[in-house]
Amino acid sequence: MKCNQLIAIFVIQLEQMLFTQTRIGKNGIPFTIYKLRSIPKGASTPNAWGKFLRNSKLDEIPQLYNILKGEMALVGPRPDVPGYADQLEGDDRIVLTLKPGITGLASLKYRNEEQLLAQQPNPKQYNDEVIWPDKVRINKWYAAHRTLAMDFLILWYTFVPVPFDVEAYMKSKK
Question: Would the pLDDT of 16 be above 90?
Fold first, then answer.
């Protein structure tokens, strides 16, 4: 088999394994985020393997490439799809002064966001009216109070899935 054929096969396999999407990064600049595909192409819901990837957060591993490219950090506000973070106004735009992260305080609070949205009669409305404004509030607080120790704490609670009361933590640091 020729080198070009091997490269073509590799690229096709990689496309089957990776999910890419445009997200909004630091200073409102769009970038492509990489994740392991948890929903097979052509399907609308994750299979058992995809659920495992999501629950274990292993689907986030390819974002290490985004970190190497300088588009993301380990800890920071999660990057959103166009139409959210890029629409922030006034003092909410402080969120865009940070590199987006693989994990953050809002990620810890909404660790079960998928299940929470699945319980809502209108998931998009609930996200737009409840979750998104709360994430902005948490991310603004993080931008104003972040420390290296806080980042290590966020990483710890990301990888050790025990309950962490984000609201109590924020109140204790005021």
Answer: no
